[in-house]
Specification:
Distance between the termini: 39 Å
Order of helices and strands: EEEHEEHEHHHEHEHEEHEHEEHEHH
CATH superfamily of the largest domain: P-loop containing nucleotide triphosphate hydrolases
Helix content: 25-40%
Strand content: 25-35%
Shape: elongated
CATH topology of the largest domain: Rossmann fold
Bound molecules: adenosine-5'-diphosphate, magnesium ion
Radius of gyration: 23 Å
CATH class of the largest domain: Alpha Beta
Number of helices: 12
CATH architecture of the largest domain: 3-Layer(aba) Sandwich
Largest sheet: 6 strands, mixed
Number of domains: 2
Length: about 325
């Protein structure tokens, strides 16, 4: 399939600081592509360059085969956007919100009412058409934002963290709607901090950290980066962590990573049997084990392997607002 978005060596600096660092990737027509990364990774900066809201420091972007820098207007007509902050007009009703955009997008007068009506249905907001958007829940506002971004029926839809802050229920409703839009033929580029979202929703994904693309592929391809075996996860008391890490290294040759009280190490296929021996060793050493288990690699394991820190640690919100070194 054709590449509808092609990004080549894209870099954006703010002064001395490099927010997006030499990223190259392609998005195929018809796919749902996820840019996964913690807060401050460079996701919004990338989206803003695609929208020509920011000019790249270097690198090129092609939209539908045309170089963006020379074809702003043409490219913009192909792209719909839902920004990170929900920006529905609080004082306008659902209908008025959509009507405003129908005018902005120059949707032909004759078609406007029909499109708006369908959009309200799609967002499951028909009964709320004359209520002010400011009274809506977060999930309802996002749904309104999503159908609003779709009003001009763009070929490409850019969704910047469409589900951040939504509860599980609303998140899964958004996923369903995003899938439906995609089935109608819209290529979707979304950004997310949620591993589960990238894993379940996206055909392909890129992991971005500190402005760099550190992994790219289908979810299962990317997960293979963590290893072909299983991930050993051990939780012990903080004071025992270093001891366990070095025991795993010296006695089993494992390259273990620790973050707070959790230790992870990949057991390649030929080493999976050692799980029992590791358990026994910890018992012999009289180290209290709070939990121990083996699981198939997740995207978080990939992130740990590539960066030494967990995605969940890196993006504060997931740990109930724990202070996060990466937040700037
Ligand atoms: N206009 C700006 N001026 C200076 N630094 C910026 C600006 N915009 C973003 N940054 C910095 O660039 C980095 C990436 O930001 P952003 O793309 O918003 O990350 P994300 O969307 O992944 O959370 C952050 O460290 C942010 O503080
Ligand atoms: Mg952002």
């Amino acid at each position: 399939m054709a590449d509808i978005i092609k990004i080549e060596n894209l870099t954006r600096k703010f002064g001395d600081f490099t927010a997006v660092n030499n990223i190259s990737l392609s998005i195929k027509e018809g796919e749902i592509f996820g840019l996964l990364g913690p807060n401050g990774a460079g996701k919004t900066t990338t989206i803003n360059m695609l929208l020509t809201l920011l000019i790249p420091t270097s690198g090129k972007i092609y939209i539908d085969g045309f170089e963006l820098a020379e074809n702003h207007e043409r490219a913009k007509q192909l792209m719909g956007l839902m920004t990170q902050e929900t920006v529905v007009e609080a004082d306008l009703t659902a209908w008025q919100n959509l009507d405003l955009f129908a005018h902005l997008y120059h949707i032909p007068e004759k078609e406007q009412a029909k499109r708006i009506y369908e959009a309200l249905q799609e967002a499951d907001l028909t009964n709320f058409r004359d209520k002010k958007a400011g009274t809506f829940s977060g999930g309802m506002q996002r749904r309104l934002g999503l159908v609003r971004a779709m009003l001009q029926e763009p070929k490409i839809l850019l969704l910047d963290e469409p589900t951040t802050g939504l509860d599980v229920q609303n998140r899964s409703t958004m996923w369903t709607r995003i899938r439906e839009l995609n089935k109608k033929g819209t290529t979707i580029l979304l950004t997310t901090q949620y591993l589960e979202e990238a894993d379940e929703l996206c055909d392909r994904l890129g992991i971005i950290d500190h402005g760099k693309l550190i992994a790219l592929g289908t979810p299962s391809e990317v997960k293979r980066i963590a290893g072909s075996g299983k991930v050993l996860e051990i939780t012990v008391n903080l004071q025992d962590v270093q001891k366990v890490v070095s025991l795993l290294k010296t006695k089993f040759g494992l390259n273990a990573t620790a973050r707070t009280e959790k230790i992870t190490a990949v057991l390649e296929k030929d080493k999976e049997d050692e799980f029992a021996s590791i358990s026994a060793m910890l018992e012999r050493q009289k180290i209290p084990v709070l939990s121990i288990g083996l699981h198939l690699p997740t995207l978080d394991d990939v992130f740990i392997k590539l960066t030494g820190a967990g995605m969940r640690d890196a993006s504060g919100e997931m740990q109930g607002g724990r202070t996060n070194i990466r937040w700037r």
